[in-house]
C-alpha cells in the first residue's frame, strides 16, 4: 500500500460519515421537520376526537398528550395553549368542509345546480357530529364571534359564486352581491344551528332544505 493511502482512506471515510456535511445537515433537518409534522398531525387528530366527543370545556391538554403519546413540551411547541389547538382543529374541519362543498358542486354541470349543490352539502355537513360540536356549538364561544366569522370560509365562496352567477345572468346583477353573500351566510349558519339543536336532525334537515331551496330560487333572474 502506498505511503499515506491509509490516512487518505480514513479521511475519506470520515468525510462520508461527517454529519456536518451540507447533505447530511439537509437530511437531518428534513427528518426533524417530518417528525414535527407527524407530531402535529397526531395532536390535531387526537384533539379533534376529544373535542367532538366531550366538547372543549371537558377536554384537557393532559388527556390530549396522553392519547397522542407525546410530551406536554411537544404540545406547546406547536400550540400556545388549548384554545390555539382548538382553533387549528376548527380550521382543519373548515378546510375539509370546503373541499366537500366543492366536490359536491362539481358533480353538476349547470352553474345554478352547482350553486344549489354547494348549499345542500353545507347542510349535509351539519349532520356530522364533529362539525356539529366543534364548529357550530363550541367555536363561536371559544374563538369569539369576531374570530369565528373571520375564519369562516363560506363568505368568500358565496361572494365568488354570486359574482359568477351574476356575470352569467343567472342571478340579477341589480342585487348587491356583497350584501347578499353576507345575508346568505347568515341564512346558512342559522339553518345549520336549527339542524344541530333539533331533537330529530334528519327531519329538520329536510325541512330546512325545503325552506332554503325556496329562498335561493327567489334569487334567480326571470
Structure summary:
The protein is an all-alpha fold and 222 residues long.
Note the run of SSEs as H and E: HHHHHHHHHHH
**Principal-axis shape:** globular
CATH class of the largest domain: Mainly Alpha
How large, in whole angstroms, is the Cα Rg? 26 Å
Please give the alpha-carbon distance between the first and last residues: 95 Å
Structural account:
This protein is mostly helical and 222 residues long. It folds into two domains: 61 residues, Orthogonal Bundle (Arc Repressor Mutant, subunit A); 140 residues, Tetracycline Repressor, domain 2 (Orthogonal Bundle). The chain is 78% helix and 0% strand. The protein contains eleven helices and no strands. The longest helix has 33 residues. The radius of gyration is 26 Å and the shape is globular. The termini are far apart. About 2% of the residues have low confidence.
Topology, element by element:
Elements: H1 5-16, H2 22-54, H3 61-68, H4 72-78, H5 82-105, H6 111-125, H7 129-143, H8 145-151, H9 154-167, H10 177-197, H11 201-217
Helix pairs in contact: 2-3, 2-5, 2-7, 5-6, 5-7, 6-11, 7-8, 9-10, 10-11
Amino acid at each position: 500500500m502506498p505511503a499515506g493511502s491509509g490516512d487518505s482512506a480514513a479521511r475519506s471515510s470520515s468525510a462520508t460519515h461527517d454529519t456536518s456535511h451540507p447533505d447530511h445537515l439537509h437530511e437531518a433537518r428534513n427528518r426533524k421537520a417530518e417528525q414535527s409534522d407527524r407530531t402535529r398531525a397526531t395532536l390535531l387528530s387526537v384533539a379533534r376526537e376529544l373535542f367532538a366527543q366531550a366538547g372543549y370545556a371537558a377536554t384537557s391538554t393532559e388527556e390530549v398528550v396522553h392519547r397522542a403519546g407525546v410530551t406536554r413540551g411537544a404540545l406547546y411547541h406547536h400550540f400556545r395553549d388549548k384554545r390555539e389547538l382548538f382553533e387549528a382543529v376548527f380550521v382543519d374541519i373548515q378546510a375539509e368542509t370546503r373541499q366537500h362543498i366543492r366536490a359536491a358542486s362539481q358533480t353538476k354541470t349547470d352553474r345554478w345546480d352547482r350553486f344549489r349543490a354547494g348549499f345542500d352539502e353545507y347542510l349535509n355537513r351539519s349532520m356530522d357530529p364533529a362539525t356539529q360540536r366543534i364548529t357550530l356549538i363550541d367555536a363561536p364561544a371559544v374563538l369569539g364571534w369576531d374570530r369565528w366569522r373571520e375564519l369562516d370560509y363560506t363568505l368568500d365562496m358565496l361572494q365568488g359564486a354570486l359574482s359568477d352567477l351574476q356575470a352569467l345572468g343567472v342571478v340579477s346583477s341589480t342585487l348587491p352581491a356583497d350584501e347578499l353573500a353576507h345575508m346568505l351566510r347568515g341564512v346558512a349558519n342559522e339553518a345549520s344551528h336549527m339542524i344541530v339543536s333539533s331533537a330529530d336532525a334528519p327531519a329538520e334537515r329536510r325541512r330546512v332544505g325545503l325552506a332554503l331551496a325556496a329562498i335561493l330560487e327567489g334569487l334567480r333572474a326571470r
